[in-house]
Design brief:
Elements: E1 2-9, E2 12-18, H1 28-41, E3 51-56, E4 66-71, E5 76-77, H2 81-95, E6 99-103, E7 108-118, E8 121-128, H3 135-138, E9 165-168, E10 172-179, H4 188-198, E11 210-218, E12 221-228, E13 232-234, H5 238-251, E14 261-265, E15 268-277, E16 280-288, E17 290-297, H6 299-304, E18 311-314, H7 317-326
Parallel strand pairs: 2-3, 10-11, 12-14
Antiparallel strand pairs: 1-2, 1-17, 3-4, 4-5, 6-7, 7-8, 8-16, 9-10, 11-12, 12-13, 14-15, 15-16, 17-18
Length: about 350
């Protein structure tokens, strides 16, 4: 029998699979198939997830484990900030360590356990890097202005007043910031249209791009909504909130490096802090690492991508997380909250 854990960071939900428990590890093709099948075959009541997080032994001596990320559509992402927090918690509990490095496809990233956000809401801080404004790293084509930082009148936008920035963290992100009180404030409807356009066939981002809109609340507080490549609308995107934080610091006069920011999202909140050292940017992403359910199924069903017969044991952590979220300010930006089927 095999164990899976349903996990989330800011309700950006995944199934976590530790390949080290298996007699025969799933191939990349099987992992891609699993990520595409879990929402269709999972037991009733578990809700949709955005993909599968895969834990295995690290290939590097300085990291205690490796994380791979498979999106809902079966594609593979080089990083996932919300997912990395949950993997960090899993590895911390396995190894009884609280400060270590995790191998990802982009880099070996330092992580550490921090004070819980609330009772039964454990939290971790993870480092988001490497970061690049290079067009090749972002997958940006046919835009002569590089780096792309706070530019408007771009050919892919129907809103002439919207400004855009692009950065790889290392996933590619397109960011637009707005004052939520502005008469031309960005809408989620526009985000959805733009996200679909830039993740379909297009000349500017032929490999697709994560698109995030950030609504200013004050100098140190934002609300961020993301249309994620390979997923669509998500309750939260860790690298998206990190990228938006960095663009905020670089373009907002009152924002500062090394300053703690609060980032609200449809699934809750995180904190971020951008740094610039040795000619490189890094971002701390701090947030919850919640385990909602433990699943147990046969290895044969796992290889087939079928969770239908899994035994499910719920934790009490989702109740604690909802209690924490209920005490947060509920910013109202019209249509920026998720629809019911996004949870």
């Amino acid at each position: 029998m095999v164990n899976l854990i349903r996990v989330h960071g800011s309700e950006n939900s995944f199934y976590l699979l530790d390949q080290r428990q298996l007699k025969h590890a799933l191939t990349s093709a099987e992992l891609s198939h699993l990520a595409q099948q879990v929402n269709d075959t999972a037991p009733a009541g578990l809700g949709k997830v955005d993909g599968v997080l895969v834990v295995s032994d690290s290939r590097h001596p300085n990291a205690i484990g490796r994380m791979q990320v498979f999106n809902r559509d079966g594609s593979q992402a080089s990083m996932c900030g919300n997912g990395l927090r949950t993997v960090s918690r899993y590895l911390a509990e396995q190894t009884h360590q609280t400060d270590f490095q995790v191998e990802t496809d982009a880099a070996d990233l330092p992580v550490h356990q921090v004070t819980p956000f609330a009772p039964d809401v454990p939290a971790f801080s993870v480092s988001i890097q490497p970061i690049s404004f290079d067009a090749a790293s972002i997958g940006l084509h046919q835009i002569p202005t590089t780096p792309l930082l706070n530019e408007n009148n771009l050919p892919f936008s129907t809103n002439s007043s919207a400004t855009f920035s692009a950065v790889a963290v290392p996933n590619p992100h397109l960011i637009s910031l707005t004052d939520h009180n502005h008469p031309n404030a960005l809408t989620t409807a526009f985000l959805g249209t733009l996200g679909q356009q830039l993740n379909g066939q297009n000349p500017w981002f032929p490999d697709g791009v994560n698109v995030s809109f950030g609504w200013e609340i004050n100098d140190t507080t934002l609300f961020v909504r993301t249309f994620e490549r390979g997923v669509g609308f998500t309750n939260a995107c860790g690298t998206g909130m990190s990228a938006t934080s960095l663009i905020w610091v670089l373009t907002h006069p009152a924002a500062q490096l090394d300053q703690l920011l609060t980032i609200y999202n449809p699934g809750g909140m995180v904190q971020t802090r951008a740094h610039h050292q040795n000619a490189a940017y890094t971002i701390d992403l701090i947030g919850n690492a919640t385990f909602t359910d433990y699943l147990r199924l046969s290895e044969a069903d796992l290889h087939a991508g079928n969770l239908a017969s899994a035994e499910v044991a719920a934790t009490q952590e989702e109740t604690a997380y909802h209690q924490f979220v209920s005490q947060l300010p509920h910013w109202s930006f019209g249509d920026v909250r998720p629809t019911a089927d996004e949870h």
